[in-house]
Amino acid sequence: MASSKGGSSGSGSGSVGLEKLSVEQLKAVKEQTDLEVNLLQDSLNNIRTATSRLDLASAALHDLSLRPAGKPMLVPLTASLYVSGTLDDADHVLVDVGTGYFIEKTMVEGKEYCERKINLLKSNFDQLFESKIVFLNLNEMDLVDSSIIGRSSFWGFRGGGHSSISPLPPL
Q1: Per residue in 59-96, is it b (16+ CB within 10 Å) or e — as a string?
Q2: Cβ burial, residue 99 (10 Å; 0-12/13-18/19+)
Q3: What CATH architecture does domain 22-146 belong to?
Q4: What Gene3D superfamilies is this protein classified in (predicted)?
Q5: pLDDT digits (tens, 9 = 90+) for 115-169
Q6: Cβ distance 21 to 29 under 8 Å?
Q7: Which residue in 162, 158, 54 sits closest to 115, CA to CA?
Q8: Strand pairing class (92-98; 72-76)
């Protein structure tokens, strides 16, 4: 990403392209990279949340399969609202497949559905986490940060900080 903005020919490292960018351009690259990393982090968090919800659903199905028919129980309507009910048929469940659609499945099919979805989400999480995009963005952010800090401290925009650019000799 940065090397294409920097105008390098694609050979060499991304830092060569970053060295040719102005401080404003580097800040724009950093903002874009920050946005991409935040989006990836949000995606990872969403996958974690969905996986934990499916784990809870799988555990609930297991607990439900152990209950005898006709036993009174509390049925959750929302996270904080429960109503009294009795278990009529522990062999069949309704599975929420999204956007308000439910499918009637046997208890075994419901558990298998949860396990398939959990495995899919874990696979997606692993692929997203290990993808080169995550590591490239983190490396680019470090390069951009060090380049901005170096240039800013050299030109006196920020105090302190280590400059990676050697000062020009006096005229």
Answers
A1: eebeeeeeeeeeeeeeeeeeeeeeeeeeeeebeebebe
A2: exposed
A3: Orthogonal Bundle (1.10)
A4: 1.10.287.370
A5: 999 999 999 888 887 775 655 556 666 666 666 666 555 544 444 444 444 443 4
A6: yes
A7: 54
A8: unpaired
**Phi and psi of 18, rounded to 5°?**
-70, -30
3 state DSSP class of 83: strand
End-to-end CA distance of the chain: 36
* Calpha distance 88→107 (Å, rounded): 13
C-alpha angle with apex 17: 14 to 21, nearest 5 degrees? 135
Query: What are the DSSP calls for 84-132, one per residue?
Result: EEE-S-TTEEEEEEETTEEEEEEHHHHHHHHHHHHHHHHHHHHHHHHSH
Quote the tokens at residue 31: 């903002």
